[in-house]
Specification:
By secondary structure, this protein is of the alpha/beta class. The protein has helices spanning 13-25, 36-42, 62-72, 87-95, 108-138, 149-162, 178-187, 206-214, 231-234, 250-262, 288-294, 299-305, 319-337, 346-354, 360-374, 382-385, 396-419, 424-431, 435-444, and strands at residues 5-9, 29-33, 50-54, 78-82, 100-103, 168-171, 196-200, 215-216, 228-229, 239-243, 264-265, 274-275, 279-284, 308-311, 343-344, 379-380.
């Protein structure tokens, strides 16, 4: 653990010196005060990582010190020291926000143990706060890629829906980004500090789905060896996102409907209901109104879910966004693999913009990743793109030519690297190429330097 700034407050000068020595030997920056009032007046927010204070001191006692410090910086951990620990005193200190109690006399090892625990706890709180801030920024409406009119109209609705704690059904074809919209709703809502939990209703067997959602009591069924907290309980105070809710069995629809009406549920094997505060968001790529008519989806459950409907348009209806999304995915791949692809060639970009993308954004992302894996030039070419999507005007003759070109390139590279004894720098000089291009072509064709040494 890196050095932390620790404030010690104790009217016993000798004890202050002992704690200073122990904590400084452990690598921390320490300042001690024998006057509690001077310590409180010196205390500033975001300056200290931990405070250690005696309880019984002249002037103002430790509990008063604790309350004043917590008023200045609520989340800083404070360890209280006392020679007369009682249950009542401990409860009082903990009630006022103390992190821990340390009873005199104590050994240096015990002091270090308590200090390390408090600092670890504080570090975890800080990291969680930073993570939540990053998630909020990541799922800000401005970070959802697209300038098309249909998307911007949708995002205006999403922004209004986010602050209202109501059920939302997100519809749209597979791969359009329905979960991204659900995350944007959560992280821009008053529930942003709670958990966002997603579950794919079609990916979990019906036999275990009830236990996954609601949890179970030990011994409720064969194999239930411990109590289990379900996803509804885990999402308490936050948001539960049910993806592909059209696959939810009828009996589970009934149970979830009761939860939406009563805000409580029964764990498997229990008779006492559990109450939770959870916002439910759901998504489907099927037409639930048709499923209602067929009798495979409950009408009352459908209307309860579909209080607000948000429809994600398919990518073919968002053609102005294709170039923006492609550029975004190229940037992400460059960052991850330290490549330098600058974008799609004009011909490839035109073809990508005219393609129907039946798999929507997910397909576009996968195609960009695949293209960048084999591309040897600075831009993704039409020839490379045509290996992953059907492009009008690119015929089988073109494909035969590409195969012939690839075979020639492999033979040429093998001879070139072999003649250079596996020295890529020398091979690049002979071929009049830069080393990065040689390495990209080797990667494209699965050639390894070791095979030529």
């Amino acid at each position: 653990m890196s050095a932390k700034k620790i404030m010690i407050i104790d009217n016993e000068e000798g004890l202050c010196h002992m704690m200073e020595a122990v904590l400084m030997d452990d690598g921390h920056a320490v300042r001690s005060f024998t006057d509690p009032l001077a310590a409180v007046e010196t205390f500033r927010p975001d300056t200290w990582d931990l405070v250690i204070s005696d309880i019984k001191m002249p002037g103002i006692d430790g509990l008063e010190v604790l309350q004043r410090i917590k008023k200045i910086e609520e989340k800083i951990p404070v360890i209280m020291i006392t020679a007369f620990a009682t249950v009542e005193m401990s409860i009082q200190a903990l009630r006022h926000g103390a992190y821990d109690m340390l009873t005199k006399p104590f050994e240096p090892d015990e002091l270090l143990f308590r200090v390390r625990n408090a600092l670890s706890h504080n570090q975890l709180l800080t990291e969680n706060q930073q993570l939540r801030q990053e998630l909020t920024e990541k799922f800000n409406f401005d970070t959802i890629i697209g300038a098309s009119t249909s998307l911007q109209q949708l995002l205006q609705k999403v922004e209004k829906v986010a602050v209202r704690d109501t059920s939302v059904l997100i519809t749209g074809e597979s791969g359009t980004g329905k979960e991204l919209i659900a995350q944007a709703i959560h992280y821009n809502s008053p529930r942003r500090n709670g958990r966002f939990i997603a579950i794919n209703c079609g990916a979990i067997p019906e036999s275990v789905l009830e236990s996954e959602l609601f949890g179970h009591k030990k011994g409720a069924f064969t194999g239930a060896t411990t109590d289990r907290e379900g996803l509804l309980k885990a999402a308490d105070g936050g948001t539960l996102f049910l993806d592909e809710i059209g696959n939810l069995p009828l009996n589970m629809q009934k149970t979830l409907l009761r939860f939406l009406q009563e805000r409580e549920f029964l764990r498997v094997g229990e008779t006492e209901p559990t109450q939770v505060d959870v916002r439910l968001l759901s998504a489907t790529n099927s037409d639930l109104a048709v499923e209602v008519e067929k009798g495979t989806f409950r009408e009352d459950f459908f209307y309860r879910l579909n209080v607000i409907n948000l429809h994600m348009p398919p990518l073919r209806e968002r053609r102005p966004d294709i170039a923006l999304l492609a550029a975004h995915f190229i940037t992400l791949q460059n960052q991850e693999f330290t490549t330098e692809i600058t974008g799609l060639s004009p011909e490839a970009l035109r073809a990508a913009s005219e393609f129907s993308w039946p798999g929507n954004i997910r397909q576009l992302k996968n195609v960009i990743e695949a293209c960048m894996t084999i591309e040897t030039e600075s831009t993704i070419s039409l020839d490379t793109l045509s290996q992953f999507i059907e492009i009008e005007g690119v015929t089988s003759a073109d494909a035969d030519y590409n195969d012939a070109l690839a075979r020639f390139e492999i033979d040429y590279l093998q001879q070139l690297i072999r003649s250079s004894g596996g020295n890529i720098e020398e091979a690049a000089q002979k071929a009049g190429m830069n080393m990065a291009t040689i390495y990209r072509k080797m990667k494209k064709h699965g050639l390894k330097k070791d095979n030529f040494v």
